[in-house]
Amino acid sequence: MTPEEMKDVISDDLEDGDEAFKLLRSIAYYFQSPDSDTATALDLIIRMLDRRGELEACLEGASMMIDAILREAGLFPYIAKKGSWRDQLAMETMRVPGMKDYVFHIEQALVFNKLAQGKSIILSAPTSFGKSLLIDALISQKRPSTVVAVVPTIALLDEFRRRMEKRFPAYQVITRTNEVPTQKLVIYIGTQERLLERERIEDIDLFVIDEFYKLDLERSDERSLALNTILARYGKTAKQIYFLGPSIDEVPNANSFREDVEFVRTRYSPVTADIIDRTGSGPSVEQLVKDLRSVRRTNSLIYVQSPPSASRLMEALLDKKLTRKKDFTAELSEWLAENFHPEWFLAKGVKRGIGMHHGRVPRSIAHLMISLFNDGDLAAIVCTSSMIEGINTAAENVFIYDRKINTSKLDRFTFDNIKGRAGRMFKHNIGKVFLYNPPPQPEQFEVHVPLFNPDEMMRPELLMQLEDDILSDPARRRKQAIVRSSELPPEVLARWAEFGVDELNSLAELVRQELSKKESLLRWKGIPDFDEIEATFELPWSVLRFSKHGLRSARQVAYFANRLRASSSIREFMDGLVSGTGIGAQTEIDRCFNFMRGAEYSFPQVLRAFNDVVDVVIGAGEVDYRVYAAQLQGLFIPGDLRALDEFGVPIPIIQRLASDLPQEDFREAREAVSAFETEFPDRFSGFESELLRRCLN
Q: pTM of the prediction?
């Protein structure tokens, strides 16, 4: 039988034992054939596995035959727990060291053996491969003293942290820049920006970069500069590196950076998916709803290109009466409406079993969405790429509704990454992918890392952040020329290179002109008034390169910041800025959340960079924006309590408890909230107690 014929037989009702035997024999022969395609063979084996019960019912002993095929294919995790001693022995040899509940498949085992021998690996593998399990297995076996893991998003940081804390209680897991190691075994987890804010970490045993393709300056955003800088800081000095990412064909010149590194590319996937083509009618809410109803008993991710797209689609879905009734989500809907805003589509959606996940959703609520989705309390989540990059979800269905990511066309690499979210080992061996636009054409995907390639590829912003001793002579001369032509000292250029070297010099000239005026509004310290905030953001707004987070002007930043500082709660903050109903109100709610996201990093960093430029131009001590920058970054919540949102505590609850929590010691505050039932026995309703339990889990 051809692969297509075998696939047809698997999907049909089996008539008798002869047909079952013929099918199993054909799959085994195809897998062992030297001319077979590995991906196709695995697809057939997984489809066969999914019908193990029916095959055994037709043919006594079929289950043992399936186990034998699984063993030959290296799919050891799927071997039945009660099978032949040969299969059981094979499975035991693949059990993950120190993690008895986990079994490697063959390709995982091959990569792990290289890592266990101390080799540095850059791994390209499908989304469902299980790349992160290799990190855990390596820590479990080798017990490295110091691990540094770079992750692309706070959502992934949160998931990574929770997994490490549960799996490795002997380790101190550090995610905040102000946390210091207090024991020998330490795992640092952070985005590139957070890790750069720390003092240099010494004697790193294992250095990990997740989603390493973001090192390519041409294929990513302005954050790539920071990621390349962290690579330059630790990539050569760490004893071992492990970089992981999906569907990458080549990483040129990796050995020029580090001789011991090996690029490993595999297409091996332990799950498969059916493709349901809806491209004939294009993106259609009616067709989407029809498809959602056809899979209503399972869980679905609906990919859209941006937060505004998520809002528009959510509004359309709310009118279609798709419902998965759960008592907790019904109460959650009311709580979100009361504590954030009643017109928030996410609050309305969860009542009907539809969640929302994108970069503007508060951290604790975004984590709760994932938890509710994995537990089956939500039937679907409308999401952007924020949920695609490494978040561990148990999605049977993926609906690729949009054909872009933000404003760029979806390329084959990103498309494959989204598509790979359909299916999960032991939950949904066969996923479903619904396409509403034609898929991108296949293309070669290479990751060009500046540090792996000639110095001519390095932008001035990256050159300024690299130590001279790792640069070639031509690169050092380029760097020296940049320094000679700038009135800003090299340490300021290096610290704030993310904003652009030429742009920083232009800002210095504008500052000189502005501060020549006696009554300049830039001369302030401590807490500014509205006009001072506006004036201080006005100069860098049009000069520096940074994310404006959807705001149109420096005046808007000042207005939102003043509103937030004067408000006692998120609800009060939003009530003063949101009017009307429907999509109009949702747009304003999104703008509030977008400002809050900018406040947690971009806007405070602009103030700090501007402060350093002003210090150079007129001398240190004349202005001080740093106190206000810290308060803005904390959303004007006292101390470092704002960080509790990352650990699962919703912001409205943080604001309510702020005066009762230890504000100067984040760890004590976190412990107090974790023990809320004894620390604050009368402060929460029954629902809120359950909410906190779920958020902190």
A: 0.92
